[in-house]
User: Fold this.
Amino acid sequence: MSEPPGRTRLTVTLTVNGSRQVADVEAGTTLLGHLRDGLGLTAANHGCDTTSCGACTVLLDGRSVKSCTVLAAQADGREVVTAEGLAADDRPHPVQESFREHHALQCGYCTPGMVLAAVSLLREQPDAGEREVRCGLRGNLCRCTGYHNIIRAVLAVAARGGPDSAVKGDRDADGLRAGSEHRLS
Ligand code: FES
Ligand code: FES
Assistant:
């Protein structure tokens, strides 16, 4: 007897934070669910699960996406960066550091997604001004900060010429690190 549609299992291969990850997942598994429950990467958070809040934001091939509404299977063969993968050589990414400097977080629930959305924005517009930053982050909600310090933090990075290429996933040309393939089922 065949599996019900959502229960069909697929093999999905991702490069996550520079590490190749192969797993068998149910066809209906979201990228967020796979990252958190399959790979144990819990920086991306569940918020609305309807593409409204941005708590689940990750980078997919370098661009921010809301992982609650991307299927893991849709990311097959692609590169994913989560907040766990931003720091390089134990040093925070410049956007993370700027959030710390400008007190741009309180409870921190929105912060991983907010930082990744800012990284994506600043890569596309390294010299973004306040209008561009406010517009670019409008899909990421914060219940605590009132946004002012978040905007200041992102503008400070723009003023320094934009984010550097410290994202781990960018460092290896083929996106892989030796000996880092994993298979889950
Ligand atoms: S949990 Fe994905 S946008 Fe809210
Ligand atoms: S710091 Fe609490 S939701 Fe943004």
